[in-house]
Amino acid sequence: MAQILTVVVGVILIVFIGWWFFGKHSESQATAVTTKDGQTAKVVVNGGFNPAVLKIKKDTPVKLVFNRKDSTTCLEKVVFPDFGVDAELPMNQDVAIPIDTSKAGEFEYSCGMHMFHGKIVIK
To answer: Which residues form the EfeO-type cupredoxin-like domain (predicted)?
Structure first.
């Protein structure tokens, strides 16, 4: 009986881990705020990126401002491979990252270990 229970718990755990890392989860979205100086989008880093999807206007300068609240080492960096950005995110400090908005499309970003992901949509 104990072996069956162990196997059942193990299978449930494997399914949960697979869902957690590979499943489709709802994503928070936000549109960058536009001022006379360009666009700004704020992202809180706490157990992931919030909002996870940022909508940005094409050909308008943008700064993505990250503020890390989570001490997890995985979230110490944010990486934008399409823009060549690999930025450190110190705890409780705003880090402004300028992004080139001359090309429309969807661009993924992630934490330094590629476990947490976000996306910017430039239209």
So the answer is: 14-122
Q: Measured in whole angstroms, how far is the alpha carbon of residue 50 from the centre of its chain?
A: 7
Domain that holds residue 117: 27-122
CA distance 65 to 94: 6
- How many domains would you assign to the chain? 1
User: The domain that contains 34 carries what CATH number?
Assistant: 2.60.40.420
- Rounded CA separation 65/83 (Å): 16
Distance (Å, whole) CA 72 – CA 68: 10
Please give the model's pTM, rounded to 2 decimal places.
Answer: 0.76
Which pLDDT score is estimated for 37?
83
Q: Alpha-carbon distance 43 to 62, whole Å? A: 13
Q: What are the tens digits of pLDDT across the range 54-87?
A: 999 999 999 999 999 999 898 999 999 999 999 9
